[in-house]
TrEMBL record:
<feature type="domain" description="Methyltransferase">
    <location>
        <begin position="55"/>
        <end position="145"/>
    </location>
</feature>
<dbReference type="GO" id="GO:0032259">
    <property type="term" value="P:methylation"/>
</dbReference>
<dbReference type="Pfam" id="PF13649">
    <property type="entry name" value="Methyltransf_25"/>
</dbReference>
<protein>
    <submittedName>
        <fullName>Class I SAM-dependent methyltransferase</fullName>
        <ecNumber>2.1.1.-</ecNumber>
    </submittedName>
</protein>
<dbReference type="GO" id="GO:0008168">
    <property type="term" value="F:methyltransferase activity"/>
</dbReference>
<dbReference type="InterPro" id="IPR041698">
    <property type="entry name" value="Methyltransf_25"/>
</dbReference>
<keyword id="KW-0489">Methyltransferase</keyword>
<dbReference type="InterPro" id="IPR029063">
    <property type="entry name" value="SAM-dependent_MTases_sf"/>
</dbReference>
<keyword id="KW-0808">Transferase</keyword>
Length: 213
């Protein structure tokens, strides 16, 4: 097995260290955000219309969003870099499938997935590394399947690093992120920008994209 890049080791170690606290803090994370739930519901509806087939939440953490998508009728699995997060997800949701893995090297067949959700899971990826993620997403996504990205939006600034509470993260201009995904065969279906909640620092971006046939 290839030795993981240093930023992957750093990210996994950082989330392992705070996994229990993180899982407790974000157990009901979607309750206060109807717009976030609406974006997830739209994704789920599109995935269901393609018929039966697996969907993956990549960077699933303790499985909160994975379980929400299950409740929306999806056959879903969760993948995360942090072994401790995966242990917590399995404990909280024993009826769901969770695996340890890196989003840029998935143990999935070409075109296996009907859909992918990346819910704030590429935020720690250095910009130079992000193309490999989109290439892998496109590889495992069936033609016509959908990708939902959630991220911190840069509010008119270029790609910007910031001091995320776990480890360094990046804010992206929504147009630039959409353009980068487009280079790897994703066509934009829709977008949503949400202004920060009273206890949040940054605007939130959401991109719903379709893998071109």
């Amino acid at each position: 097995m290839t030795e993981p890049s240093s930023y992957l080791r750093t990210t996994a170690d950082a989330y392992d260290a705070i996994a229990v606290l993180y899982a407790d803090l974000f157990r009901n994370a979607l309750d206060a955000f109807p717009l976030d739930r609406a974006v997830l519901a739209a994704f789920a509806e599109l995935a269901r219309t393609r018929g039966p087939g697996p969907v993956a939440e990549l960077g699933c953490g303790p499985g909160t969003v994975t379980a929400h998508l299950r409740d929306l009728g999806l056959d879903i699995l969760g993948v995360d870099l942090s072994p401790v997060m995966i242990d917590l997800a399995r404990e909280a949701h024993p009826d769901l499938r969770f695996e340890v893995g890196s989003m840029d090297a998935l143990d999935l067949a070409d075109g296996e997935l009907n859909g992918i959700v990346s819910w704030y899971s590429v935020i720690h990826t250095p910009p130079r590394e992000l193309p490999s993620y989109f290439a892998e997403f496109r590889r495992v996504l069936a033609p016509g399947g959908h990708l939902l990205l959630a991220f911190f939006e840069s509010e008119g600034e270029p790609v910007t690093a910031f001091d995320h509470k776990v480890t360094t993260a990046f804010r992206w201009p929504i147009d630039e992120l959409a353009g980068l995904a487009g280079e790897f065969g994703f066509a934009e279906v829709g977008r949503m920008l949400r202004e920060p909640h009273e206890d949040e620092r940054f605007r939130r971006g959401h991109l719903l994209m379709r893998g071109e046939k």
